[in-house]
Every structure is written in C-alpha cells, then in structure tokens.
Write a structure and sequence with these properties.
Blueprint (H helix, E strand, L loop, with lengths): L1 H16 L7 E6 L2 E3 L5 E2 L7 E6 L5 E9 L3 H14 L10 H22 L1 H11 L13 H18 L2 E10 L2 E7 L3 E7 L5 E5 L9 H9 L4 H7 L11 E2 L1 H4 L21 E6 L5 E6 L1 H11 L4 H15 L3 H22 L9 E2 L2 E8 L14 E9 L8 E9 L14 E4 L11 E4 L4 E4 L3 E2 L2 E4 L22 H11 L4 H4 L9
Antiparallel strand pairs: 1-14, 2-3, 2-13, 4-5, 5-6, 6-7, 6-10, 7-11, 8-9, 8-12, 9-21, 12-14, 15-16, 17-18, 18-19, 20-21
C-alpha cells in the first residue's frame, strides 16, 4: 500500500515534469531561523514550503506558493497534484469565467481527497495499533516490550500522516488573472499607470482566526468564535482553511475548540477572485505566510504591503534577472527581521524567530532592467543603501549591484550607478520616498497613500565610465550626512569640506 501511494505521487510528478517553466517569473526562498541570545541564527526544521510556476497551452499559466507545516509532505503533494489537475488539458480559452472558477475549486477538492486517500492506510493502521497500548496501568509489565514497539511504530505513522499546508495560487487565462487563496498566504498585484506610477492591491484576505467572515462561518457550525479569536490558533495553526491536517479534519471532535462543531469546520475550499489584465503593466507577488509575518513582526502590519512592493520595485530596477530580484527581496526581509531583533528596540520581542519564506514574482508587461555586462570572469557584489520608512526608525536597504571584474580595473554594471539619496518623509506619507541619481539622469520615485495601495516609481540609469586611473566617480551623496554631523558636533573634518561636491573623501 505504501508503494502504491508512492507510485501515485511519483506519477503526478512525472506528468508535470515536462511542463515548461514560466520565464517571466522569479522565486526567492529562505529557510526558517531561530535567533540565539547573541543574534546567531539556527534552523529549527527542514524547509517546508513549495511553489509552482508553469506555462501551459493556450496561453494558460499557473503559479502557486504552498506554506507547509509539520513537514513538507502536504505542500509538495499539493504542488504536484494541483498542477496535474489544472494544466493537463482541463482548462481552455473557451471556458467562461464561471467555468474557470468551478474548475479551480474542484481541483482543490480533488487534491484534498487524493491526499487523504494516500494516507488512509496509515491512518487505519494507526487507529488499529492504538488499541494495543496499555490502559490505566493494566498489564504494563507484561506488555512493556510489545508496547514499546507499538509506540515506535505509532511515531513513524504519525510522521507519515501529520502536517498540512495553506496555499495561494494564481492562474492566468484569456488575459485574466484568477487568484485562489486558501489560508494565510498573500497575493499582491502592483499596477503601473500611464503616468509612470504604480499602485498596489491586496487580493483577498487571510483565512485566519481574526477574519470576521471566517469567525461567522465557524459560529454557524456551532464553534465558539470568541474562544477561537482568543486562542489565535486552531490545532496549532492560525489558518481556518488548509489542505491536509488530519487532526483538524478527521479528528476535529477531539480538538477542544472544534469539539462542538456540527460539521467539518476546517475546510480546503479556496476563495477565488478574478480581474482582467487588459492594459495592465506591473507585477504579481505571491508570498508565503512566513515572509509576510517576518516583515510585519519587524515593522508592523500597517505598511507591510507597500514596503514589500517598494522592495520588489527597487530590486527589479537593479538586478539582472527575476530570480536574483526575488532572492534579494527575501534576503532583505530576513536582514530587516534580524536587525530589529538584535537592536533591542520596541519590536525586538516579536522577532525572535521566523518561518520559511517564499516569494514569487510574476512580471506583467513590466519593463525589467538591462542585464549587467561585466568583463569576462567578473562577479557581482551587492551594495546596500538605506531608504527611509516614515512609520519606523529602522532602515531597509536597497541593494545595488557592483560588477567586480577579474582584472585590475573597476567598472559598474548597467543600471547600477544610481545613487539613493535619503529624503525627509513628508507628514502623512505612508511609504518610502526615494530619489535615484546618476551622472546621466535624475528620476524620482515617490510613494503616497491612495485608496488601498500606494504609488511609486523607480528606474535605473546608465553606467558611469571609469577615469584614467580606473576609478568611477562616487555615486552616493553623503553631503546631507556631513551637514548634520557638523550641526551636531560643531565641526567638520577638513578632508570632508574640501571634497568636490560634498561627497567625502575620494
């Protein structure tokens, strides 16, 4: 039976192996981390997230981020089976909006049922072996050896059947975007307007213990929603919709918060949203709960969406490809989270650890940066420049790329010579304002509150050329810093005041 389940999973995986990967998509990941007293981090469990990014036939593309917990089995299972249920001929351009929604919902239902079928024998064996455990101390001495073997086997079975996953899935068909959200992951759509500004929109809400609609749904089933809100978790997780997790699905009556439910309270039904992509230019972000929670723990939840999109826009303007941009954003969030913890500031107690992080970026008619052109044998090194966050005293970096050739000269890659000059945020501004400068162009990126999102724009610039000594002109303007230093300390070193353009030592 175990072999049959393994073959079933492998068959679905082999069916999807031949699907082409979407080239307009990049993914960044980072494993979970727990910080020690000195800020050193260690991984507490294996990486449990999964993702998909496939391009099917008839212009149909499928993307997804799956946040696994208590193991990666359900996340991996869902990523393989859901792809097989959607991209192997089930969807066509002739399908109406209602039909696409029905197929998406049905696919999640099939994946859920298939998963529980795959662990059905293990669950049955687990229930059977539980009957052989000694009860109330009767026969403990006689059965101690047998009991130990039963316990060991039960632990093996528990590892095989435990765990679950949440998911956020994006489907693009007929130039229309469908978002199927189930759980606590997040989808953001950033639109670029004709005047060069972008607006960010969160698509759907998290199905969590503080979602009013979900609490009403649970209350209608007889669950005490007040206790659920107070607990903040159900069977060890804050999501009210999830894939797998037999304890919350099959044995929910054994869970204190769910014992009064008249029907299955934790469901695997996605909430589906759709909108046209006609004349849309921008990018789509799919984020695992771990990535969202890390940023919100460090800087608060009020501006997390705007800050995330600002980071992505900055990296898209600087990195050579989408994969590098996505990974740089994840690394930056990880860095911000760690820095807040070691700082000991107000939010430090919330940043003692973070879960696995996954970010998927899908560009939609969005102009990407020109690739860097290092000399042969060169390597790219990141250089971080902070920008201001008006909601927090902490700093978040914009990573610029410097190309370091293997020979003695130093050159800058294309789109990497921009300077990021920090400005004082205007009152009421809710997101970062940055200025990009170079020797050739001066473009501005601004952000302001507008409805459910924020507006901003960033562009790269042409590379500066090295002079006869092999050096490039300095591109970070520290004059504002030096003026502040002089105002606070009453003096300014002579080697700084004599620097051309107030840029400091050359």
């Amino acid at each position: 039976n175990m072999a049959q389940r393994r073959n079933l999973s492998q068959s679905h995986q082999s069916w999807t192996d031949d699907l082409p990967v979407c080239e307009m998509c990049g993914v960044g990941t980072a494993p979970n981390c727990v910080y020690g007293a000195e800020g050193a981090g260690s991984q507490s469990h294996t990486y449990e997230d999964a993702h998909i990014r496939f391009r099917g036939e008839d212009g149909c593309s499928l993307y997804g981020v799956f946040n696994g917990y208590d193991g990666s089995k359900v996340a991996n299972f869902a990523s393989q089976f859901l792809t097989a249920e959607l991209l192997l001929g089930q969807l066509a351009t002739a399908h109406s909006d209602g039909e696409v929604r029905r197929i998406l919902t049905q696919a999640f239902d099939v994946v859920e049922k298939s998963y529980f079928e795959s662990i059905d024998d293990a669950l049955a064996e687990k229930a059977h072996l539980s009957n052989f455990l000694p009860r109330d101390g009767v026969g403990v001495c006689v059965l101690c050896v047998q009991s130990q073997k039963v316990q060991e086997r039960l632990q093996e079975l528990e590892q095989e059947v435990c765990g679950g996953a949440t998911a956020v899935v994006a489907l693009i068909l007929n130039n229309k975007l469908y978002i199927a959200n189930m759980g606590t992951d997040r989808a953001l759509l950033c639109r670029s307007s004709s005047d060069g500004q972008n607006q960010v929109q969160q698509i759907g809400r998290a199905h969590s213990t503080d979602n009013e609609d979900e609490l009403h749904r649970l209350a209608a089933l007889g669950v005490d929603s007040v206790l659920v809100r107070q607990a903040g978790q159900i069977a060890g997780h804050r999501s009210t919709r999830r894939l797998g997790d037999y304890r919350a699905k099959i044995h929910y009556s054994d869970t204190h918060l769910l014992s009064s439910a008249k029907a299955k309270p934790i469901i695997a039904e996605p909430e589906i949203h759709s909108q046209s992509l006609e004349r849309v230019s921008g990018f789509l972000l799919l984020m695992s709960e771990g990535l969202i929670s890390a940023l919100e723990s460090a800087h608060g939840s009020e501006q997390a969406n705007q800050e995330m999109v600002a980071m992505v826009a900055a990296e898209l303007a600087q990195q050579s490809n989408l994969e590098a941009a996505a990974q740089s954003v994840v690394e930056r969030v990880k860095r911000v989270h760690h820095d807040v913890y070691v700082s000991g500031r107000q939010r430090a107690p919330f940043c003692g650890q973070h879960e696995d992080m996954t970010l998927l970026i899908r560009c939609i008619n969005y102009p990407g940066p020109d690739p860097p052109t290092p000399t042969q044998g060169g390597r790219i090194y990141p250089v971080s420049v902070p920008y201001s966050n008006s909601q927090s005293t902490s700093k978040t970096s914009v990573t610029l790329s410097l190309v370091m050739p293997s020979i003695c000269t130093l050159t800058n890659g294309t789109n990497t010579t921009s300077a990021l000059e920090e400005e004082t945020p205007t009152p009421g501004s809710q997101s970062p304002t940055t200025t990009l400068q170079s020797t050739n162009t001066h473009t501005q990126s601004s952000s302001s509150s507008s409805g459910d999102g924020s507006l901003f724009r960033q562009r790269g610039s042409q590379a500066a050329q090295p002079d006869e000594t092999g050096r490039v002109p300095p591109y970070v303007d520290f004059s504002h810093f030096y003026r502040l230093w002089g105002n606070e300390h009453g003096d300014l070193p002579s080697d700084l005041t004599s620097a051309p353009g107030g840029l400091g030592p050359q």
